[in-house]
Amino acid sequence: EFISEHGIRIIHIGKKKYFDNPYIDKLYRLLTFRKNIYKKILKIALALKADIYHFHDLQINKIGKKLKNFPHRPKVIYDVHEDYHDMLVHNIKKNNILRIPVKIYASYIKKWELSCSKNYDFIITVLKYINDKFIPVLGNDNVEIIYNYTNFSPDKEKALKQEKLYDVIYCGLINEVRGIYQIIESARIL
Question: Structure pTM?
Answer without folding.
Answer: 0.71
